[in-house]
Amino acid sequence: MVVKRRKTKNIRRTTGKGGNFRPTKSGAGMTKKGVRAYRKANPGSKLKTAVTGKVKKGSKAAKRRKSYCARSLGQLKKSSAKTRNNPNSRIRQARRRWKC
User: How many degrees, rounded to 5, is the angle at CA 68 between CA 64 and CA 72?
Assistant: First the structure.
């Protein structure tokens, strides 16, 4: 009988080695360094950082923002009431950073 072991996922860290995610207080999401590391580990990936600046209406960046905001609203609605109503939750902070 062969027993297969599951690979354990790395814990998301915001500081120290492998700190590829922003702390909640600075808007959640991935850092530029984190995106570079992910793309290096996953060749062909098109992962990008958040759209945070001003964008022209109808531009690619504006469309990415609109798409993210729509997806994240679904995540927000499916989360618990505690998360949904907490202004400091990761999803709320990320949406604020993306200007949703």
Answer: 175
